[in-house]
Inverse folding.
C-alpha cells in the first residue's frame, strides 16, 4: 500500500517526484513548461523497470507540458501551442477525480528571490512572484491533505519587516483555504516553514532551500518538518557526518575519475559507456588558469600578487568584491557548494573538480544532486547542467517526506 497520491507541479526533470517515489508514494501527475526537462522526466521516470526497486511509482506514460502561470502578469510562454491549465485540466489529463490527490508538491521558479538577482519592491497585499500566486490557486482548487513546497532560501527573508510582504501573504492565503462545509475554525492549512540545508539530510551539497509543509485542518504546532540526519560536526550530536564530494564520487566506482578535459566515458577500456560523464573541452588558457589556482589555493583571488597573476581574467583584474567563486576549486572533503544552472562551467562558480584540472561533468553534477547513476541526462552540456541545476535533490525530498507519516499522515491522511 502506498503512502499517498502526489501531483508534482513545476516538476522539472523529476527530482522531487523521484524523492516521493523512493519514499513510497504514487506520483499520479506532473506538469511543467520546460520541454527538455519534461523529456528528461519521461525518459527516466515513465519508462518501465527503472523504478522497480522503489516502494512507490509513477502512474502515467508522460508528464504534461503546460503553462502553469494561469494568465497572471508574468509574461506567458512564447509558444502559443502550450495551454494554460487549471487543476481541473490537470485532473482530466491524468484521469483523476476531485479529492483523489493526497499531496501537491510544488517547486515554482522564483528568480525574483534568488541571491543571483537584485530584488525590487512590489505592491502591498500581492505576492512578488506570480507563479507562486498561481501555485496557491492550484492548491485551492484541489485542497489536498498535504502540500509540500520548495523554494529558494531568500523567499523566507521577505516579510520580516513588513507584514504584507510575500511569505506572510503565503501563510495567510493557505490558512484561508476551506473545503466545502468547513468552518473558519476547522479548515485552512497549518504550516511549518524553514530554511533547510540539504547537506543536513545526507546530500553531498550545501544547498539551502526554503521548505514548507502545509497540512489541512491542523494548527502550526501540531506537526513539524523532520529533524536533520547529518551535521558538519557530528561529534557534538548523534548525527552522521556530512557526505562529501569525494565520498559521492568514490561510490561511483564505474566512473573514470581521471577523465581529461574534452573526453567522455565512451570506448574506454574497463569502463561502461556513460555519455553524461563528459568533460567540457576547455581552452588551454582555462586549463592553465586551473593549474595556477591549484598551485596557490582554491580561488582566482589567490593568484593576486603572485607570479601567476597573468592568469587572472581581464574581467576580474579590477574587481574588489564579489566573484569569489569563479574558477573556484571544489573542496573534496566537504559537500559541494550550491549547484546552479551553470554547474559544469568553471567560470560561473566553484565548479572545478576537486583534483582534476577540468570542470565537473554532467554525471558528476547529477551525483551531487543525488540522482541515481541510471538517470539519463540531455546530450548537450548547456541543457544537462540546466536540468541538474534546477532540480530538487531526490534524496533530500525522500528524507523529508518519508517521515511525514510519523507526525502528519495519521492526522492528515486519516491513517
Amino acid at each position: 500500500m502506498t503512502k499517498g497520491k502526489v501531483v508534482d507541479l513545476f516538476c522539472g526533470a523529476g527530482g522531487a517526484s523521484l524523492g516521493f517515489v523512493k519514499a513510497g508514494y504514487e506520483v499520479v501527475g506532473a506538469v511543467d513548461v520546460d520541454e527538455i526537462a519534461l523529456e528528461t522526466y519521461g525518459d527516466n521516470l515513465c519508462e518501465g523497470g527503472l523504478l522497480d526497486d522503489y516502494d512507490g511509482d509513477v502512474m502515467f506514460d508522460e508528464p504534461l507540458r503546460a503553462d502553469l502561470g494561469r494568465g497572471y502578469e508574468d509574461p506567458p510562454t512564447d509558444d502559443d501551442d502550450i495551454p494554460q491549465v487549471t487543476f481541473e485540466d490537470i485532473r482530466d489529463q491524468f484521469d483523476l477525480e476531485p479529492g483523489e490527490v493526497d499531496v501537491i508538491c510544488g517547486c515554482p521558479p522564483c528568480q525574483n528571490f534568488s541571491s543571483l538577482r537584485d530584488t525590487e519592491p512590489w505592491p502591498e497585499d500581492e505576492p512578488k512572484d506570480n507563479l507562486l500566486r498561481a501555485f496557491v490557486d492550484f492548491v485551492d482548487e484541489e485542497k489536498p491533505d498535504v502540500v509540500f513546497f520548495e523554494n529558494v532560501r531568500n523567499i523566507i527573508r521577505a516579510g520580516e519587516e513588513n507584514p504584507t510582504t510575500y511569505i506572510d501573504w503565503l501563510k495567510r492565503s493557505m490558512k484561508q483555504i476551506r473545503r466545502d462545509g468547513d468552518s473558519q475554525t476547522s479548515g485552512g492549512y497549518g504550516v511549518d516553514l524553514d530554511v533547510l540545508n540539504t547537506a543536513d539530510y545526507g546530500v553531498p551539497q550545501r544547498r539551502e532551500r526554503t521548505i514548507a509543509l502545509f497540512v489541512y485542518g491542523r494548527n502550526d504546532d501540531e506537526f513539524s518538518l523532520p529533524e536533520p540526519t547529518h551535521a558538519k560536526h557530528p561529534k557534538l550530536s548523534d548525527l552522521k557526518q556530512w557526505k562529501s564530494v569525494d565520498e559521492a564520487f568514490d561510490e561511483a566506482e564505474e566512473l573514470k575519475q581521471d577523465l581529461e578535459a574534452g573526453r567522455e566515458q565512451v570506448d574506454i577500456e574497463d569502463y561502461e559507456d556513460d555519455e553524461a560523464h563528459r568533460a567540457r573541452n576547455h581552452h588551454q588558457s582555462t586549463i592553465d588558469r586551473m593549474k595556477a589556482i591549484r598551485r596557490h589555493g582554491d580561488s582566482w583571488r589567490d593568484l593576486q600578487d603572485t607570479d601567476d597573476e597573468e592568469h587572472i581574467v581581464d574581467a576580474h583584474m579590477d574587481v574588489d568584491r564579489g566573484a569569489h567563486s569563479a574558477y573556484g576549486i571544489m573542496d573534496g572533503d566537504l559537500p559541494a557548494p550550491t549547484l546552479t544552472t551553470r554547474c559544469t562551467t568553471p567560470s560561473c562558480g566553484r565548479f572545478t573538480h576537486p583534483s582534476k584540472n577540468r570542470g565537473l561533468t554532467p554525471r558528476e553534477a547529477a551525483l551531487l544532486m543525488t540522482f541515481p547513476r541510471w538517470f539519463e541526462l540531455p546530450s548537450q552540456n548547456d541543457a544537462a547542467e540546466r536540468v541538474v541545476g534546477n532540480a530538487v535533490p531526490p534524496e533530500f525530498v525522500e528524507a523529508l517526506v518519508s517521515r511525514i507519516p510519523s507526525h502528519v499522515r495519521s492526522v492528515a491522511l486519516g491513517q
DSSP finds eleven helices and twelve strands in the chain. The chain has a mean pLDDT of 88.
